[in-house]
Amino acid sequence: MQDRLAADAGAIQTHLDQVLRDFGEDPVAEAMRYATRGGKCIRGFLVLEGARLHDVDGAAALWPATAIEALHAYSLVHDDLPAMDNDALRRGQPTVHVKWDEATAILVGDALQSLAFELISHPDCGPPATRADLTLSLARAAGGQGMVLGQALDIAAESTATPLSLDQITTLQQAKTGALILWAATAGARMAGADLAPLSAYARALGLAFQIQDDVIDVTGDAAAAGKAVGKDAAAGKATFVSLLGLDGARARAATLVDDACNALSCYGARADTLRGLARFVISRQN
Amino acid sequence: MQDRLAADAGAIQTHLDQVLRDFGEDPVAEAMRYATRGGKCIRGFLVLEGARLHDVDGAAALWPATAIEALHAYSLVHDDLPAMDNDALRRGQPTVHVKWDEATAILVGDALQSLAFELISHPDCGPPATRADLTLSLARAAGGQGMVLGQALDIAAESTATPLSLDQITTLQQAKTGALILWAATAGARMAGADLAPLSAYARALGLAFQIQDDVIDVTGDAAAAGKAVGKDAAAGKATFVSLLGLDGARARAATLVDDACNALSCYGARADTLRGLARFVISRQN
After folding, report:
1. What does each C-alpha distance from A272 to A69, A168, A195, A255 come to in angstroms?
2. Please, are residues B141 and B64 in contact by the beta-carbon 8 Å criterion?
3. What does the domain layout of chain A look like in residue ranges?
4. Is A59 within 8 Å of chain B by CB?
5. Is B230 helix (H, G, I), strand (E, B) or coil?
6. Which cofactor names does the annotation list (chains A, B) (predicted)?
7. pLDDT digits over A66-82, tens only?
């Protein structure tokens, strides 16, 4: 699984680099290239694996795979801004507003979001009906009823005295990180016109397991391995899966969710073993 | 012309309000509604008029008309941020980061950009091929080779000692404000599968005339009439069409551009008189 993830991450990176080569030499273009490098490409990998499961052409699937990584990169650049999470380190490197400035970081995020929609509506991505479907679903997953809603709930939670309950955190995370993971996991099925239900169930469990592991890393990890600041949630007195379930409880919950994710793919048999491997990888990672 | 503009602006506003009614009661949703109110809707009007010229169904054209106003609103919210133009007043009201905070303003802009792509890929907007074409062209007009490039050039210009030349300002403005105006004016022709050339020529001249008038208002207007801060460019020693051409020269240039814009529509005859009226309106407005 990890070899295939690395190979797919390489293909996505190459495609992103090619697309962004045309964007000139101004600081925003340069920072767009910077912000899209060095990620694990888990979301793009989900697109490519979901496409393989449905015999979708890999060259076509590379467009939505690259699009979701551009969109994810935009969300990180804006999330790291001083007015948001105020993070100086991302993927082991200075964040965009630290390396350049805030105005550049705002524009880079904005341009990366546009780029995601440009990539997904590229003619090589598939017939128009596929592109329109991918665009509509991505816009909904990213916007004020998806990822941005999750971020808004997250910010609102910081200013209330009562910590969130487990149900509230689950709702928040399903919007904040879950919506894009759901979109990525189902994009290949969408392209094939197949049933989205099995991969949707897989993605919901995977997304939560992913977030629980993020909370675990925030408590147990070190910044060098994580490539970003750690210990921030506890310091802020923020409710997390770890603060609510305890470290062992959070790990047990993540393991159960990974089992759920794997079982959701039973209709695909052994063909889905790579996606099952990804689910297990997600809760073993340290960054 | 102004009656029709007012009627179309009302229809666009109603449609935006309807769409945003589903977005809940969190501050980001509330601020999205706030940020999309009170505009002149010139870009949306261009979409609807371009559609009328080509006998495109008005209900279908309302989707891209609403989309371009959502996209324009996003660009204003982000432009007004402290790290960008740092403006406290917009459309006669406090800007989003003043009324709420910076984090909300960043998220509101992000969500409004997603919303634009959601609107434009809505099934009621037209057949999939139309939607895919509108999406690809809008993503290019908005992103790092369109509007955001213009904003990046604008920021870069502020930090260089030599003021921009007329050619450089023209290039900058054609990206910063011209790209969206071009998209809006040609959207109806796109939906009809018609030749984009006449409306493209119209939009290029109109976009520049629009920007020149903005520079004129910045020098001659007062904040109450303009609904935003004025005199900022001169105070910042920034090169503008007025600083380069003088006030009379700038006005004369705008008038010539309006003639060019009107002439570009000769193939449409009297049917394009409303668009010609809009071009004349653009250089007479005080806000």
Report:
1. 22, 31, 15, 18
2. no
3. 2-282
4. no
5. coil
6. Mg(2+)
7. 999 999 999 999 999 99
* Residue A77 region by backbone torsions, left for phi larger than 0, else alpha for psi between -120 and 50, else beta: alpha
Torsional sign, CA A261, A266, A268, A269: positive
Rounded to whole angstroms, the Cα distance separating B12 from B38 reads 11
b/e A227-248 (16+ beta carbons within 10 angstroms → b) = bbbbeebeeeebbbbbbbbeee
- The per-residue pLDDT for A286 is 76
What is the tens place of the pLDDT at every residue in A218-258?
888 777 666 777 777 767 777 889 999 999 999 999 999 99
Provide the 10 A C-beta neighbour count for residue B91: 17
User: Is B140 touching A (CB cutoff 8 A)?
Assistant: yes
Mean pLDDT, range B6-34, rounded to an integer: 93
DSSP B8-62: HHHHHHHHHHHHHHTT-SSHHHHHHHHHTSS---HHHHHHHHHHHHTT--HHHHH
CATH tag for A2-282 (out of 3.40.50.2000, 2.40.160.20, 3.40.50.620, 1.10.600.10): 1.10.600.10
Residue of chain B whose alpha carbon sits nearest to that of A20? B144
For tokens 């959701």, what's the residue? Answer: A264
Q: What is the mean pLDDT of chain A?
A: 93
Q: What is the mean pLDDT of residues A209-222?
A: 88
The yes-or-no verdict on residue B233 having pLDDT over 80 is no
| CA–CA min distance B242, chain A (Å) | 26
What is the value of ipTM here, to two decimals?
0.94
DSSP reduced 3-state for A89: strand
Taking an 8 Å cut-off on Cβ atoms, the answer to whether B139 and A117 are in contact is yes
How far CA B236 is from CA of B85, B151, B164, B211, B213, in Å, comes to 11, 16, 13, 18, 18
Report in angstroms the alpha-carbon separations of A113 from A65, B11, B128, B205: 14, 28, 21, 29
What is the Cα–Cα distance from B264 to B282, expressed in whole angstroms?
16
Cross-chain residue pair A139–B152, CB shorter than 8 Å = no
Report helix, strand or coil for A121. coil
Lowest-confidence pick of A24-33, A40-49, A159-168: A159-168
B218 — pLDDT class (breaks 50, 70, 90) = confident
Q: What is the DSSP letter of A124?
A: G
